[in-house]
Amino acid sequence: MWSAFGPTNVAIHTLTAALALDDPTEAVGVGGQIDTRLLPAPLVGRRARLHVDLADGHARLGEDAVAAVHILDVARRASQLLRVDPTARAVLATLLGRARGSTVSVLRSVAEQAGVVT
Predict the structure, then answer these.
(1) How far apart are the C-alpha atoms of 27 and 17, rounded to whole Å?
(2) Is the pLDDT of residue 2 over 70?
(3) How many CA atoms lie within 13 A of 4 on its CB side?
(4) Rounded-to-integer distance, Cα 88 and Cα 55, Å
(5) Predicted TM-score of the model (pTM)
(6) Are the CB atoms for 81 and 52 separated by under 8 Å?
(7) How far apart are CA 87 and CA 28, in angstroms?
(8) What span, in angstroms and rounded, lies between the C-alpha atoms of 21 and 89?
(9) Which one, of 81, 60, 84, lies nearest residue 72 by Cα?
(10) Chain centroid to CA 71: how far?
(11) Has domain 7-114 been given CATH number 1.25.40?
């Protein structure tokens, strides 16, 4: 099996570990240093997973606007992830529950497409 562990992959694993250890501040800090443009183009799923994790970290910190941007990026890149991934679904439901103003309609549309709400 082929695998590669350059600085970008190590940073992604660090972010994931920080979330697992319930340290969203560390996760968001590490995530801010990751340039997803360095990932090969075919790694759409990896890039989308990173955005789910960043949305999770920002949502845990109450930074809903930033979390919503990441969820919208996931919806654009890999909408199927929002339908099947428990973390993505939970973050989307949380954001929708706390949304105000024009953000509600945008998130509701994504949530309906993902089957999070009907």
Answers:
(1) 8
(2) no
(3) 7
(4) 8
(5) 0.89
(6) yes
(7) 16
(8) 20
(9) 81
(10) 6
(11) yes
